[in-house]
Amino acid sequence: MNCAFRITDRLLEAVHRDLSRPHAFAYERVGHLHCRVGVQAERIVILAEEYRPVADADYLPSDEAGAVIGPAAIRTVLQNAYRRRDAVFHVHRHDHHGVPSFSRLDARENARCVPDFWKTSPAMPHGALVLSFDSATGRVWCPATRSCTDLRDITCIGAQVRRLGGFYG
Amino acid sequence: MADRFSRQRFLGTDFDRLAADTEVGIVGLCGGGSHVAQQLAHIGVGRFRLFDPDKADETNTGRMVGLSAKDTEYKPLKTDVIARRILEINPAAEVATYPVPWQQASEAMKLCHTVFGCVDRYQPRDELERFCRRYLVPYIDVGMDVHGEGFPYRIAGQVIVSLPGRPCLRCFGFITDERLQEEARRYGDVGGRPQVVWPNGVLASTAVGAFIQLIAPWSEDAPPLYTEYDGNRFRLFPSHRLAPLSHHTCPHYPLADDLGDVNWSSGSEAA
Q1: Bridge partners of A34?
Q2: Are the beta carbons of B157 and B229 closer than 8 angstroms?
Q3: How far is A65 from chain B (nearest CA, A)?
Q4: Would the CB atoms of B270 and A39 count as touching at under 8 Å?
């Protein structure tokens, strides 16, 4: 399965703006991108449509991770996915330039949490995206095979067509 | 060491790899589209989706790059002529052809990084732009016309870069309901519209330049979203319609709730 991800420059700016805000105790912020999907044979394009930040009160203190979100945040994102029947991507950022990669903790938590989105939006692919200041890396879980794969192409569409990551990045 | 792309290094040290991994759709492969395809092949674009239901005949030799007199003896599909031309230039390119109205093969355009619309009429332009907005695909419209019933004639054309959230063909006043209705009223009128090779070449080159500036900017100047062409004065200029729309958000294609496939069930089938 060849999966591409697209986001407009204005939406990506909004994501970065939110993830840049300091939190009272969490070291980093997370959010969720609600996305639509286009299918072409064995290829899928995932189209980011709306960003929903996690509310300040929904972070939990943690010594292990930069950000841990509580059940209220998870319930909110599952409810949104149920209402919209769309694809959901968990987003956070590593504060550096260049191609980011998921930490071991990220990978473990993504594998545990992302499939939960199928509980309320079972037909859609879901995934996780890690941004840097100028790039991105992502993984997507596909409902038919229940397997995950790297996003092959992550592109920001705006005044430029910027390849943030994937095969080329 | 000099290689095939050594003279275009200013586009970025990694441009060749970027271009090779870039996918473009070209709809309409005669006057404008054949030039566009040829230039993109030269510059190293790696993946092409070609759409045109027509066969080439001798009336096309006046403006269709890549079409020879010998070709017209057997009236080949335009998609085949252009695919052959692309592969002659860049044998590594991946070329998929769709010799049908693009609407019947539109799925193939969903993952394109840019679609070039080189069609004659307003209706298909409107539909193409609508499709591209739905899948967040930049759409570049290329077109020209010869105006007048007799001497002196006037040649005019345009290149419009339509980007998600930015002004669309309707925002620019290029597509209007009145134009669509007038076109529908005259649909079926016999006779092809006048076309000549050189304005197509000028406009296709401008469109390719705008595309490269989108994917690999070589200067700080963004391409004008609407470039007009005055073929009588041999002048290209940013349209006067741009200024009032400089901070405009397109109301015709809102970005929320209007993206992707309408039939969600297909997501589960393919994924």
Answers
A1: A50, A88
A2: yes
A3: 31
A4: yes
A52 by DSSP, 3-state: which?
Answer: strand
Name the residue of chain A whose CA is nearest to B223's CA. A159
Average pLDDT over residues A54-80: 90
B256 pLDDT higher than 90: no
- Most trustworthy range by pLDDT among A105-114, A131-140, B8-17, B242-251: A131-140
In 3-state terms chain A splits into helix, strand, coil percentages (rounded to 5) of 25, 40, 35
Q: Distance from A28 to chain B by nearest Cα, in Å? A: 27
Task: Give me the helices (H) in B90-121, please.
Answer: none
Domain count, chain A: 1
Other Cβ atoms within 10 Å of B251 Cβ, number: 10
Residue-wise pLDDT tens digits, B126-162: 999 999 999 999 999 999 989 988 899 999 999 999 9
Report yes or no on A72 lying in a domain: yes
Q: What pLDDT is attached to residue B2?
A: 60
Closest partner CB to A49 (pick from B165, B255, B266): B255
Output B46 or A42, whichever has higher pLDDT.
B46
CA A114-A19-A147 angle, to 5 degrees, is 15
Q: Residue A139: inside a domain, yes or no?
A: no
Kindly give, in sequence order, each residue whose CB lies less than 8 Å from that of residue B14, ignoring residues fewer than 6 positions away: none
CA distance linking residue A42 with residue B122, whole number of Å: 32
User: Which is it for the CA torsion B63, B64, B66, B72, positive or negative?
Assistant: negative
What kind and span of H or E run contains A113? Answer: helix A104-113
Assign B177 to helix, strand or coil.
helix
Task: Please report the domains of chain B, with CATH numbers, ordered by start residue.
Answer: 11-245 (3.40.50.720)
* Contact call for residues B116 and B142 (beta carbons, < 8 A): yes
Residue positions counted in chain B: 271
**Contact across the interface for B267 and A45, Cβ inside 8 Å:** no
Residue-wise pLDDT tens digits, B2-57:
677 788 889 888 899 999 999 999 999 999 999 999 999 999 999 999 999 999 99
Please tell me the distance in Å from A145's CA to the nearest CA on chain B: 7
Domain that holds residue A106: 3-131+144-166
| Whole-angstrom distance, CA of residue B132 vs CA of residue A97 | 31
